[in-house]
Known about the structure:
Layout: E1 10-11, H1 22-29, E2 35-41, E3 50-56, H2 75-88, E4 91-97, H3 99-105, H4 107-122, E5 127-131, E6 143-147, H5 154-175, H6 183-186, H7 192-201
Helix pairs in contact: 2-5, 3-4
Amino acid sequence: MPRGLASSGSKAGSRGERPTFLHEERFWQAGYSRIAGLDEVGRGALAGPVVAAACVFAPGTCLPDIFADSKQLTPVQRRRLAEWIRAHAQAWALGAASHREVDRYGIVFATALAMRRALARIGPVDHVFYDGTPLPGFDRSSATPIVRGDRCCASIAAASVLAKVVRDDLMARVGARFPGYGWAENAGYGTFQHRAMLERLGPTRLHRRSFRLGIEEDSCE
Length: 221
């Protein structure tokens, strides 16, 4: 890591801040060219995998006006932005950790696992920014965690959009096999509808048994 650049976890600015390439620019100016942003979706869901995305942009990329982190966009805006990211990113890749891996290893390790899988698929990188607090398996000399990084770091924000679109589509598809839980709308998160159906029908084989589902777990599907 170049001297003077962030070597430890840093914090983003205030809520509503628009993502920029400010974090990446410092590394680009130091001669680093492949800076990856990493983010995940599904960490707090009751069912389904954790999906992560990695995204690398070339220095000098101009961001569109619609650019924002996934939580600040409507589903239609996310899809439009995901198309732009796939077309304009230098590289991008996805990774996931299954609901079984969440149960086996715990959500923190599974989150790191999904991110490392995405990173492995994107090829060599010079440095990594990822959203959140330090995760296991990430060397602090080559990877910088940024709290609320999806709000300020463009590469992380792009990763958040790709991961959100892919996971939402996945949960909608698998939800057709488990009608009633509303996964096309809640993506497996613990909404009132989802918890009510859990109480009525019990968990499916895609639910995370290590999470507090709020039911007597004596059934599967």
